[in-house]
Design goal:
Radius of gyration: 14 Å
Largest sheet: 6 strands, mixed
Shape: globular
Number of strands: 6
Strand order of the largest sheet: 1-2-6-3-4-5
Number of helices: 5
Helix content: 25-40%
């Protein structure tokens, strides 16, 4: 597909049927194996858990978490990333407004919910 160092996708699996979703996930894996970074936004956290080694949770204008899916589930609890996400955004700001190193990132003019993930 590309020999670029970083590829950025916005909701790349949105509205795809199961077969096409699998093909996109495989393509992302192949790109990673070739050394490309893959960054994508999604609201489907099952895609993040199965594909990504790092993620960021954005909520109410701030980055609420940055780290691996396993770190997110360990920090916020839950059997899967969706439950950990809900615990993060429903928790107090002091529980989830910093990344794994304790750094807080705030973004203005963004009241959307969602996540960004890097595979």
């Amino acid at each position: 597909m590309s020999d670029k160092e970083l590829l950025v996708f916005d909701e790349p699996m949105d509205d795809l049927d199961p077969k096409a979703r699998l093909l996109v996930k495989r393509l992302m894996g192949e790109l990673r194996q070739r050394g490309s970074g893959v960054f994508f936004s999604t609201h489907v956290l099952g895609d993040v858990q199965g594909v990504c080694d790092q993620l960021a949770i954005l909520h109410a204008g701030s980055m609420r978490f940055s780290g691996s899916p396993a770190q997110c589930m360990a920090r916020f609890g839950g059997d899967d990333l969706e439950q950990a996400y809900l615990h993060c955004i429903e928790g107090s700001d002091t529980d989830c407004d910093s990344d794994r190193d304790g750094n807080s990132d705030r973004y203005s003019n963004d009241d959307s919910e969602g996540g960004a993930a890097r595979s």
